[in-house]
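Each record in this resource describes a single protein on a pair of labelled lines. An example record follows, reproduced without changes.
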Amino acid sequence: MALPASPIARRALLGGALATLAHPAHADDAPLALLANGSHLAIMRHALAPGTGDPAAFRIDDCTTQRNLSDQGRAQATQIGIRLRAAGITRARVLTSQWCRARDTARLLGYGPPDDLALLNSFFATRSGGPAQTRALCTWIAAAILDTPVLLVSHQVVVTALSEVFPASGEIVILRRHPTGTLAVAGRVATPP
């Protein structure tokens, strides 16, 4: 493409290009539009919670015994919610693992109080239960009503078991639910910077 001959037009064109670089559109947000068609849902890994697994004294009913979101993770979860709404997801049914870092992520997305779904709980420490839990979650997904965008907030092991994607903290995986009940990855939405 040739630049316009006029210096004023060139400056306007270059200024617009620089503004786009300063505030880039999230091209990878396009898969979020699929959530409106009734055959897709989203599963995301909780926002940034430094570390791996949980402490030995972990208790599901006591956040002080768990690995929790950092300040950066809380900001990341809020930013993800803003990004979802900017992409047209103005309302959503949000379900979450019972782990505090997932609940906090789900709450900070800004869609109101999330609902707990124990099938989204981590099986990192008890991997032997992973296959049965994944099958049960697939059964739940097969029966889920998707007339409102559905967003599941979970953990890396659960996201990977469903999608074969190893997500970054805060990454969203869009899943297509086929009429047969099988799932396929339809897109990924990267973690905001």
Observations:
- The chain is about 35% helix and 15% strand.
